[in-house]
Amino acid sequence: MSGHTSIRHSEVIISAVLVMDRAQRNVAQRGQIIGMWDAGFRVAEIAALIGISKPTVRRWVRRWQESGNLLNLPRCGAPRKTTPDDEQRILNEVRNNPHTNACALREALNLNLSADTIRRRLHQSGIHHHPPAIKPKLKERHREARLQFARQHVHNDLTYSGRVIFSDEKTFC
To answer: Residue 30 half-sphere exposure, CB side, CA atoms within 13 Å?
Structure first.
């Protein structure tokens, strides 16, 4: 097919699409699909060049032919509560104070959002909170056992390969 001379042009468009935000990228990619379709590319070629599935290419070509629309259709559900500015403020605050939590973020930034919404925005950005490991405090009998073990093996050098014995095991040396 004669449309292959524009493959390099398509690669340039693909690389330009990568620097856009997701919503812009989706619409631009759909426009690219239609442009390539109009230029005579086959569905399989478009899918391979852009890196998407053939059914996705077919769906957007069909939508374009039926309605001339490449925008997202309205969906059910509540509108997004955060603005891009809110999301950036949340990320900046977490970068400045990585040991904070969603409730503290809400208070620090004076946001009228639930802690779950803040957690979702953090998760979408790849930030996941993991509570610090809590080590149980040693009891007196543990301290005494450790001290006894240390006194018993104080003269052993670093090459000592003795076996650590637990209280329910018999002592073998």
So the answer is: 18
**68 Rama sector, left if φ>0, alpha if ψ -120 to 50, beta otherwise:** left
**Distant-in-sequence, close-in-space partners of 138: CB < 8 Å, separation ≥ 6:** 146
**Residue 147 has which token pair?**
């001290």
User: E strands within the chain?
Assistant: none
Q: How confident is the model at residue 98 (pLDDT cuts 50, 70, 90)?
A: confident
Q: Which residue has the tokens 């610090």?
A: 132
Give the integer Cα–Cα distance in Å for 74 and 39: 30
CA atoms of 57 and 59, how far apart (whole Å): 5
H or E stretch covering 78: none
Q: How far apart are CA 171 and CA 165, in angstroms?
A: 6
Q: How confident is the model at residue 2 (pLDDT cuts 50, 70, 90)?
A: very low
| Contact criterion met (CB below 8 Å) for 47 and 29 | no
User: Nearest-CA neighbor of 57 among 69, 39, 44, 74?
Assistant: 44
